[in-house]
């Protein structure tokens, strides 16, 4: 299917491709560093899901808008424009990390860029997004809050309670369920009363839609509509964006619960390759330009690892800092 | 005796109790098809089927409440929380329903249930995934709380917990699952509420429970080299607390260091410190010292997270304090 891409500015298309590539290469490097024991603990990679964060967040003005996500947070942080040096340094637990080495992989934050984490407990950040939307409404600001969470989180009480609250209080939130099909090792169909999450908003009077998360232009368009609705009508929206993680839940998960064929099927619809071929077909970019872009990004990512490596460990005295203001 | 891991000891306990009583079921996230996030329930689905080994959605409050409902109607559920960090989502069910049902109903309705999973700091997991919550659970009347530190205790206490007619909170630890120890072939039970004297000593009492036992024994070894003979008491149960065992060791050595990986404020350690000062005040030759986690959330950076927890060095320093030994 040939896409009509005239409505998108070439700069936007290139920016989205660049962001997806940056996320992919960053994650690959992080996995490598984990193998070398530079990074410890849980590392939840975003490879395969890049179009969701990059396509959604491309609709935002982060001076007024906000982003919340769960613990698979690297992609959203990068899409919010956070400095990858500070992200890689955080994974290395260094003082130059975005959370001063105290947060780690699951807790990237950037208050200035309105990236509100990086939250570790499944579903627990969903009410926070609504609270930030309450502030926006309270001050008559223009903003919207994008709240990302996974298919595992959608059955938590916090999700259902928050949907109701955003509706009765008219809060500008776009709920984005990134359905990567597996809540850790559990196929989402095994633990859900419905296979179509987008209808879960209906009992709260909240419109919903399923979106193809492997196609960044679909993501961009649908989130764009929802953002517009939130900003002009103060109406929340629930989007189920269907996606796929190529790696296990975290580094310790061999992902034996799915078939190689299924993984290959999704790799064939790789979001980066899809957008790349659209740009090439429409002469927005040449193969050579793409190769140069990728090369530059790989160098940038390598530099972030060097930066992390060379950065200092946090001072032991910082242990007692930041407990209270 | 066979040498098995802590993980395998728990698995054996579950298997034996499920064999023994068809009312015992296991419920939690990834317990069945995935064989458990930490593989404690490995093979149980194959043996007992999906009617008794039940995968749940990620809904801690919901499935914990459902299990309590099944328990008060006569079943014996074992709820696995993937970690105690996620049990915070389920606390209302545990505290307001499981812990109080018997009392509120004037003794009519008891809740025979076990809540189990890893508690306490692991490694590189940051603030929300690495915290010791024993003090909170121990705070509530109506619960039993146990925290075994060896495979032997893990098996014997889990079997007792499953057979207990009260709600039992059973705290393990990620880092302990691969620890090995001797476990007898035949069946045995360990009474809930009985401490275990791990090492006899005369100069100072080191009182602890759960994962820190290992560093406490290491500290005792090191102290021996410098001529200090430390006694080590593993509480094993926090509720009921083996008060007699605590008083016995205090009366014997007259000096106490309590090692608890929870935070210091309103903790098991501070409670035991108060208990000793009330009931063995005249036996003390020095104020009780506590070695706890530092009073901060857990940082991700490894040096910081190690500095946040009890260590052999901190224990030795506290021992020197109660012995009035000036360090060089």
Structure explained in plain terms:
Helix content of chain A is 41%, strand content 11%. By secondary structure, chain A is α/β, with parallel strands linked by helices. Chain A has helices at residues 10-35, 50-57, 74-79, 84-91, 126-138, 157-168, 216-233, 260-267, 271-281, 287-310, and strands spanning 66-69, 115-118, 145-150, 173-179, 182-183, 186-187, 208-212, 237-242. In chain A, the strands form two sheets. A six-stranded parallel β-sheet of chain A has the order 2-1-3-4-8-7, sandwiched between helices. Chain A has a two-stranded antiparallel ribbon with strand order 5-6. Chain A has one domain (10-311): Rossmann fold (3-Layer(aba) Sandwich). The radius of gyration of chain A is 19 Å and the shape is globular. Chain B is α/β, with parallel strands linked by helices and 328 residues long. Helix content of chain B is 37%, strand content 18%. In chain B, helix 11 (268-279) links the parallel strand 13 and strand 14 (289-292). In chain B, helix 1 (6-20) packs parallel to helix 8 (151-163), helix 9 packs across helix 13 and helix 10 (243-253) crosses helix 11 (268-279). Chain B is globular and about 60 Å long. The mean pLDDT of chain B is 97. At the A-B interface, loops of A face helix 12 of B.
């Amino acid at each position: 299917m040939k896409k009509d891409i005239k409505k998108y500015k070439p700069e936007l298309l290139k920016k989205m491709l660049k962001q997806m590539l940056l996320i992919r290469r960053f994650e690959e490097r992080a996995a490598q560093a984990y193998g070398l024991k530079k990074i410890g603990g849980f590392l939840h990679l975003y490879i395969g899901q890049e179009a969701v964060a990059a396509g959604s967040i491309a609709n935002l003005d982060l001076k007024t808008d906000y982003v919340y996500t769960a613990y698979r947070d690297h992609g959203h942080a990068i899409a919010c424009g956070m400095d990858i040096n500070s992200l890689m340094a955080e994974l290395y637990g260094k003082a130059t990390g975005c959370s001063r080495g105290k947060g780690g992989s699951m807790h990237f934050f950037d208050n200035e860029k309105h990236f509100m984490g990086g939250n570790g407990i499944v579903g627990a950040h969903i009410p926070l997004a609504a609270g930030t939307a309450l502030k926006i409404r309270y001050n008559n600001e223009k903003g919207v809050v994008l709240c990302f969470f996974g298919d595992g989180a959608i059955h938590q009480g916090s999700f259902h309670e928050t949907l109701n609250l955003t509706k009765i209080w008219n809060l500008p939130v776009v709920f984005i369920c990134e359905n990567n099909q597996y809540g850790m090792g559990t196929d989402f169909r095994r633990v859900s009363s419905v296979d179509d999450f987008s209808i879960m908003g209906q009992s709260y009077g909240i419109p919903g839609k399923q979106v193809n998360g492997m196609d960044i232009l679909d993501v961009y368009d649908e989130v764009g509509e929802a953002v517009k609705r939130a900003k002009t009508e103060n109406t929340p929206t629930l989007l189920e964006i269907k996606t796929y993680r190529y790696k296990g839940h975290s580094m310790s998960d061999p992902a034996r619960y799915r078939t190689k064929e299924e993984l290959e099927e999704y790799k064939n619809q790789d979001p980066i390759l899809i957008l790349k071929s659209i740009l090439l077909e429409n002469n927005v970019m040449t193969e050579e330009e793409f190769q140069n872009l990728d090369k530059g990004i790989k160098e940038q990512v390598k530099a972030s690892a060097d930066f992390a490596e060379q950065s200092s460990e946090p001072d032991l005295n910082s242990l007692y800092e930041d407990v209270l203001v | 005796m066979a040498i098995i891991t802590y993980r395998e000891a728990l698995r054996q306990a579950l298997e034996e109790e499920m064999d023994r009583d068809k009312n015992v079921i296991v419920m939690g996230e990834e317990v069945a098809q995935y064989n458990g996030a930490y593989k404690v329930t490995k093979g149980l689905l194959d043996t007992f089927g999906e009617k008794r080994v039940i995968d749940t959605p990620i809904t801690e409050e919901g499935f914990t409440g459902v299990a309590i409902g099944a328990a008060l109607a006569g079943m014996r559920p074992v709820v696995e929380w993937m970690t105690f960090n996620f049990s915070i989502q389920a606390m209302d069910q545990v505290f307001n329903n499981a812990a109080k049902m018997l009392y509120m109903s004037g003794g009519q309705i008891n809740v025979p249930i076990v809540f189990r999973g890893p508690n306490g700091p692991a490694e590189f997991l940051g603030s929300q995934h690495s915290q010791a919550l024993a003090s909170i659970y121990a705070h509530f009347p109506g619960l039993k709380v146990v925290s075994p530190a060896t495979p032997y205790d893990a098996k014997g206490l889990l079997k007792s917990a499953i057979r207990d007619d009260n709600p039992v909170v059973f705290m393990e630890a990620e880092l302990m699952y691969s620890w090995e120890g001797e476990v007898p072939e035949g069946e045995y039970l360990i009474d809930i509420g009985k401490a275990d004297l791990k090492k006899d000593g005369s100069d100072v009492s080191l009182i602890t429970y759960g994962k820190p036992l290992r560093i406490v024994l290491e500290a005792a070894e090191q102290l021996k080299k410098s001529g200090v003979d430390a006694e080590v008491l593993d509480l094993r149960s926090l509720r009921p607390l083996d008060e007699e065992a605590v008083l016995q060791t205090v009366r014997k050595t007259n000096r106490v260091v309590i090692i608890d990986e929870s935070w210091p404020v309103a903790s098991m350690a501070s409670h035991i410190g108060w208990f000793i000062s009330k009931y063995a005040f005249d036996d003390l030759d020095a104020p009780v010292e506590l070695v706890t986690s530092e009073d901060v959330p857990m940082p991700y950076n490894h040096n910081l997270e190690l500095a946040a927890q009890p260590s052999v060095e901190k224990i030795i320093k506290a021992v020197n304090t109660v012995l009035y030994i000036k360090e060089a």
